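task queued by scheduler; priority normal; single chain, no ligands, no partner chains; default sampling; output format set to structure tokens
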Amino acid sequence: MHSPVLRYLRYFFAILSFIALAFLFIDYRNLIPVGAFKAATWFQFGPSLVQFIHAAGITSAGFIFILIITLLLGRVYCSALCPLGILQDVMIRIEKWFRKRKIFRFRKGTWWRYVFLGLAALSLFTGILTVFNLLDPYSNFGRIFSTLAKPVVVLTNNLASGILGESSPVTINRFPIRGFDIASIVYPLIILLLLLFLTWKYGRLFCNLVCPVGTLLGLVSPYSIFKVSLDKTKCNQCGKCSAQCKAQCINIKTQEIDYSRCVMCFNCIGPCPDNGVNLGRFSPLKATALTTETETGQSKSRRKFIGSAFLLGLAGHLFAQEKKGGVFEKPTTLAEKKTSAVSPPGSGSVEEFMNKCIACHLCVSACPTQVLQPSLLKYGLQGFLQPYMDYHANFCNYECVVCGNACPTGAISEITVEEKKKIQLGRATFVKENCVVYTYNTACGACSEHCPTKAVNMVPYKPGLTIPEVDQSICVGCGACEYACPVKPFKAIYVDGNPVHLAALPPKEEKLERNVEDEDWAF
């Protein structure tokens, strides 16, 4: 088959997939309906595989579908469905605007890709997902867009709101950026800069060197039924197809293709003047082996990305964390003695959450209150970059279950609002020495006012003053009290996480006693 229709079909699916997934991570207005999260991520190999390992079912069989497609058409997932792969294509396209005569040259595959695959597999099947999370393409895409792109979009929105002002007929609401930690952008920024460098110099080398999903599909793709091939009777070894191969897998000298690295982009079909490159049906048992002939004629030019690094660094500097103001300027001195981080509602326990979470940060982007934030070492090294409940950033809405609907791996289970109200994520602890009632002899009660279960009550302290008292049995660990507490840096009330989520007792109902005889009846 020799037709530009193949490329147009790939463009269609790639654009659709990229826009859908990108919008999931930058939707700061929370416009996406609940069911769209699972539909958009079902085709993603990494999260589907993790979910299948822990709970086999049709909802987690997306990776099986990808394997079947790979057996039919090769690595089309890498060029039409993988968001990180499509992001690299976007980078290559933008690069051509500045360097129109970009020429790719054949490069041998390296055994290092199998080392990365082995490390990712070991991480996956031992249940310690740290390495897998750092290499998985979907997770890296999610971190880039939720941690780097989304704040830029929000800042742009707020800038437009400030420019238009209140007198403008068009109203643009401002949105805060909560809990932003400059350290959390380091790894996504490194991956983004690595992608920029590799795509500029070597095309899709990241997919064929670092990405474990690409390497795994590369073990299957040589046995696919339909392949792109060179017709040796027509090929005059002009090299035009090889010059367009961003996977650098066409050896024009031997007229062979390394199918383990071919991402089926179909860019090689159109440039051939003699119709020597075609998509056809092959026997799965006749996988073409590529010779190990050394590469010749590599480009010697080296490009620096100082400008890109500077702009990204400047953007990172502008991502200032929004802090709550307060009238109590005296800093508190007693540190919060938290023994465990708080994992999201529906995760069951910290250990179970770490074993299933791939740190894609989709829940971070979906969270309406932005209480879910990327952790560094809150769970230890094993939970690097996995989300946790940051109650200094905000609190968990008592009736919100969005994170469970968004999670693609089952690390956060889908639960109902009523089920969530019974889950105790942690327990509130009161530190009197940090409380403004104790230190300033003034009334406060912010923690009690914001507690949805009334686990925090104000009890008599001094004449005219009341002070918080916590009933941990009905506390659900939502963090509303900790977020509302006006003191800093250490809160007077904080939530210590439960390593295993417990059941909270139902809130106590307040009984109102009325003296009927004293009431003024209207009849």
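post-processing summary
- The CA atoms of residues 349 and 397 lie 19 Å apart.
- The first strand starts at residue 226 and ends at 230.
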